[in-house]
């Protein structure tokens, strides 16, 4: 699988690679479930971007630019877990520091049920208080990505951690392991809880229902397969990933990406010559 091609498909590198700065591993979170990027993008025209769910929660420290027609002043936002595709537009400059969190890490850092920010972007200040906005203002005044990343890391390490739900943590790990044949019913049985209680606790911690999260993980696996150097035949890919058939796979792409697999690939190939793109949500 080509990681570069996957990033291009999701819009992270739809502009020149010089516009994206990758935070050194461990500088911000010290864990693989937390990743940090710096973006300083200039677009001479209005860009409409397809946002594809990536199974993460994003903290966005917007430093400068115009987004959805509104001028951005230093501000902090949280973009929750998405269970469907969406679009966004921006033009001119867009400068930000973005932290991608796995749902369990996000739940512990934010301390609120993640379903409260599902399919939404809300001010981080509403959750973490004025310190979030103050950090965005300080980042805007700071020169150099290394120092910006250090400030974000220092801020996150100071935040109190909510208690993790061990049963949900174990269930998420089981789902992410990709074990063939694992069902939500299996997880309910292993938890010892009722299906209703399991679903409620899981949705609190992850932001999506167990079934929706499992579907998103399977779609993400299909997306990785799609951008392989030699993309597989869709029917075979559907069978190997546990879809009922090829039509089932295509419906998931329509749901999560808003386009068929082939249309998404064509769009990615055309990104260098038009103003449309895809982005990870």
TrEMBL record:
Residues 166-267 form the HTH araC/xylS-type domain. PROSITE patterns: HTH_ARAC_FAMILY_2 (PS01124). One of its GO terms (molecular function) is sequence-specific DNA binding. Keywords: DNA-binding, Transcription, Transcription regulation. The keyword DNA-binding applies. This is Helix-turn-helix transcriptional regulator. It comes from Nocardia pulmonis. The lineage of its organism: Bacteria, Bacillati, Actinomycetota, Actinomycetes, Mycobacteriales.
